[in-house]
Structures are given as structure tokens and as C-alpha cells.
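Hi Prof. W.,

I finally got the Ribosomal protein L15 prediction working! I wasn't sure whether to trim anything, so I left the full sequence exactly as given:
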Amino acid sequence: MFFRSLEHILKYRKCNFYLHCFGSCQSVAWPPRARSFTTGATSSVASCSASSREIVVLEDGRLRGVHYNKVYGSDENSPDGLFTPHPFNRRFAYSKRPLFPIEPRNLRIYGLRRHKKRGRGKKSSARGYRFKRQKHRGSKANSRTFEGGQTPLFKRLPKWPEAWLSRQRKTLDPLNLSKLRYFIERGRLDTRFPITQRHLYDSKCVKVKRGVQLFNVNDYPFPYKIHIEVAGSDQSSIDAIKRVGGSVTIVYYDRVNLRAHLKPYKFEVLPRTARPSIDMVHYLEKMRARGCNVVYIKPMWLLKEEQAIAAEMAELEAETLTSSELDPDESATEREQRLVKLYRERLLRFGRPYE
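And this is what came out:
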């Protein structure tokens, strides 16, 4: 705590008696009974001379102390210059406990002295040589996950199946349309012929592992007319290529077929083309809806379903031809839309026709 004046100190110590005395006079003689370490008449002379001197003066409405040299120094009244200890001086005090709490720890300004920086020397660098593991760690523990040495929560919870399944997802190899344009301009790809995934692999345009997927950022312009075969593409790349007269073909390859497509010299007999699963069929048909040409061998279950749908549509068409509600002015497109609507209604009512 920082004391502004002696009055502030007395208020802090709650000395009402001294406040009453100091508040009613302009100057105060302190101490009223000064002590000295001399004996006999000399002690009495020093005490008398010290008691008649002023150590506290009232200036500008504040109590200000007088330097002890002016109070106890040598002058006409005390030619010997005997020293009488100041009550605030702890050097000549009878007790270690001060009269008032005036100490450096109370008078210092907090934050003025900065902490000692560690790790600036050699060997132990002011850290000591014991408890090396605790003292010589590089940084503090991460407060978000550190639990005081206990196994954190993210390590106690199992990683399977969410994390394991997320790692099993097969992602295609991305190819930016701007990089494809750069390779064409450098002459490493020929736009006169269809560009396949093997051409992209041989020209080192992309490292093919699971199939190439085109993507475009901010509708980057693509001025070259190309016909490219990839495993996937986004809508922006499809629109950019078709805008200049090109085409995007989605070709299905499984792991073995893709390896045979990229490195046919490693196979004595090329493997047969695999049929896609139901999830892959849904993905390929979604690519067809985006405007791509899709190439894959239809699986047997899809062929049976298409045959059943065709038979059901033929029955519906025969029923509409024999009904009296047939419109003679109906076009082929309108008749097809009406048959599809009837087929969907019957599908919702009776289920699939081939089951």
C-alpha cells in the first residue's frame, strides 16, 4: 500500500489521538520523548534539543516530514551533533515490528519490477538441476484438452466406428480445371483426341489412385473444346466444358480395372469390366442428370427392373388404348407423361411389379 502522507498513515493505523493532535497545529515536534543511546547529562540535552525541533510541517494542507539531518543534525543548541534515532528507522529499533507499516513492499508500485526471465543462461539457466522433467518442459499444457495428468476425454472415447468409417470413405483425386488448361497450353495434353485418365496420369497432370474428379473454382474460364473421360465432375466444370462444345464422360472403373487402364503392361490378360453397385448406380445417374455422358455396364438387378418397368408400361398403354377416355389429339410426349403418372400411382398402390 502506498502512503501519501503521515496523516494517511495515521488514518490507516486508526490513531485518533495523533490525528486530533496533528490536525489542530501547524507544526508538530516529534517525538515528544526522544530516546538516545548515550547516558547521563548528554542524553538529557539531546532529548531536550530534539524535542524542540519540528519534524512535521503542514504545507498546502498536507503534512510533510522534515529530513532527519535538519532535525537531529549539529547546530548551535547541540554542538556535539548527537544522533537520536528516528522512530521510523528500523536500524536502531528495539523491535523488528515497525511502528507504522512503512516497508518497501508497501511503498512499491505493483508491476514496476518485471519477473525474471528464465532460460537465458547455460546449463540449468536459473531453473535448478532437480526435477528436470517438471521444470524443463517446452510449453504449457493445452488447456482445452489437459485434465491435470488424467487421460483426457478425447482419448477415453473410442475412435470406432465414426472415425474408422470416415477414413474408409473413398475420395476421388481432384483436378482443377485451371491446371488442366495449363497442361493443354504447355502442349502436354492434346485436345484433338479424347483425354482419358491414362493421359492425365502419363502426363503427370494428376496422380491417379481412385479416379479423377474435375472441379472449377469461381467459374474459371476454359476456352478449349475437349472430350474428357473422368470418374466425377462438378456442375461448374461440366458447364464450362460444354459451353465451348466439349463433353464430359463419366466412366466407371473399380480398383482392378482402373489399374489395368493406367498400366495395361502389367497384365498378361486384361480383367473383365466390373459392374457397379447400387450406390454407384445412383451416383452415375446423378452425373447423367448433371449433363454428363455415363458409361457403365448395367448390373443384372437393374436389367430385371427395367424389363419389369417396360412390361408394366406396355400394360398401361394397352389399357389406355382400349379405354374410352383416349384423346385422339394427344401427342407422344403427353402420352408418355400420362403413362409415367399412371405407373407411379400403381407403384404406390400395389408396390413393385416384379416382387
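The radius of gyration is 49 Å. Does that look reasonable to you?

Thanks,
D.
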